[in-house]
């Protein structure tokens, strides 16, 4: 069974195109270092249907003018994830300027960013 890192990122809708540029660069890093797959998804239909539980909007405490980014990266295992992420972080820290880091902070609120590692229990 594979392993997945998942992210939920509240984001101002006006920042989506800037985030997409960063995500495209991130995809290159993760796939280059061995991730099996990489997805970045923007919330489009976040209204909860009656009887369907709690929606992402509530979960992410979205404010007016915001949506949620739902992202996930697929790995062979947790060990593989740890190896890939270490290589990606090393390369990103080498390449990112202080201006890049400042830009990232302006695009997303890291205090509301959610992340976790998940062991798959059902796959195709």
UniProtKB/TrEMBL annotation:
Pfam families listed in its UniProt record: DUF1428 (PF07237)
InterPro entries linked: Dimeric_a/b-barrel, DUF1428
Protein name, UniProt field: DUF1428 domain-containing protein
Source organism phylogeny: Archaea, Candidatus Iainarchaeota, Candidatus Iainarchaeia, Candidatus Iainarchaeales, Candidatus Iainarchaeaceae
